Every structure is written in structure tokens, then in C-alpha cells.
Amino acid sequence: MLAAAAIVIGYGIITAVISFIVSFFLASTQNQKVIVSLNILWTLFISIIILTIFIRRERPRIENDQNKLQKKTQPALGISKAISLFPTYCWLNTNLIPNNTDLPMGMGIFKPNLAPEYSLYFYGNVKEQTVTDSISFTINNNGHIEISYAPPWLLPQNLKLDYGILLFKIKTIYKRFLEIEVNSKTHQTALINSNAGKVLLWPSFLLEVHSIELLPSKNNFIRSRPFEHSDKINIQHTLLLPLAIRGNWMKVQLVDDNYTALGEGWIKWNEKGQLLVKYSLLS
User: Fold this and answer.
1) Which residues, 6+ apart, have CB-to-CB distance to 197 below 8 Å?
2) 3-state secondary structure of 56
3) Domain containing 172: what range?
4) Per the count of CB atoms within 10 A, which of 6, 38, 78, 110 is most buried?
């Protein structure tokens, strides 16, 4: 870009010198109206020449950048190959997804747009905004969304595309970008555009899930009020359905196998940046 600007300035200086010399001779031989008309035509002519030269010099660079981007972001693998990149357990029909509570829970969950016309692009950093990789989608013969291309290191927080589930943990929120965890095992992260899907902070996300399960190892109990020393609720139940969130506390409804309401209570859903519950996305 700097070289191109210098070239344009150089052409401008040369043109100015030539114009000065020509105008000096015209001024002594022509009247004022003719000189003004010639100056306008000369300015337009020179502008067109400079613009043409600039476009011809820059076109190869622009086309080269576009080709690099297309090669990087277009699907490079078939559907079967892309699916084989993921560990088998990631594709199992598992309703309750365990969370590693020994790790920071992050800010929330990101849900990308799932449609063939959308691709989820990964960026190297916020300043350069250079695409480093992507996920592309397609529709299979059954009318369900599938991944047509994905990087070999991709391992989302939750993945079950036949139910429209593809979720990533959010680590950092920028003005127009998100840092998400793209591998839930190695905890590798990447940047994405925040407009590429839906951002759900933990309270909003947990209120959308099907049910909640307490982690027994965290010594967490259902209580009558959102206080550490309030009375415990000891009602036999099958599921906990999220109703409301206040700070670190979640109000839940206790139900049996038939979803009959048995009572309500409060549980602590996070503490010191770690989740104290597991969530079920499906019934």
C-alpha cells in the first residue's frame, strides 16, 4: 500500500511539471476561455491515466489476496472425512453433557448460525482480522444440517447437529469479536466475529436448557432460600428444571418422571468462576 501511494505521488509530480510547462506556452498564445477549457480537459485526462495505472498495478495483488482467502475458507474435505476428524464420543446421543468443573467456566456459550450459506470463520487476532480457518455446513439427503469442512483440531463444547446443537464456550468478549474454546480437551481458543451467531451468557443459557443436575462432589444442596445456611429441601425427585437465576443462585422446580411438580428450591450454580452443576440439553 505504501509503495502504491509513493508511485501515485510520483506520477502526480511528473504530471504537475508537464502541466506547468504546457500551460506556460498556452498562456502566451491562447485567450483565457480556451486556456480554462484546456485545463479542465487536461485534468480529467491525467486523472483517468493515473487511476488506470493504479488499478492495473493493484489488481494482481487484490486477486492474489482473494484467492488465498478462498483457498483457506472453502470446504476442502468431504462430509465423511470431516466427521471422521471428531472423536467418536462427540457424536454419541448423550443428553447430559458433563462439565469439567476444575476449569474456569468462562463467560457463557456461543451458538453459531447453522445453515449452508453461513460459514464460521476463525481469526488469528483482532487487529489483523486474518482468517486462519473455518467451519462450513451443508444439508444432507434427510434435510439435516451437516459439517462439510472442519479443522482437525475442532472439538466443541457440545455437538449434536441432528438436533441443531453446536456450542462453544466463550472465554473473552471483545467489541466485535469473541474468543471461544474450539477444543474442549486441549482448551485451544480462536477468535470469531460476534455477529456469526448467538451469544448467551451463562444465566441466559442455563435458563434455556432442559434440566440441571447437581454435582455431588461439590457438596451442593437444594435449599429453601438463596442463602448458604437456609433449610435444605429433601424431596425425592427425578429432574431439576431451571426457573430463575439470582447471582450465584438458581431457582429450580423439582419434578418426577411424569414432570409432575413436587416443589421448588434454590441451588448454587457457580462459585469462584466454576460451574457447580451439569446441564441436559435434551429431554
Assistant:
1) 110, 111, 112, 113, 120
2) helix
3) 81-95+103-201
4) 110
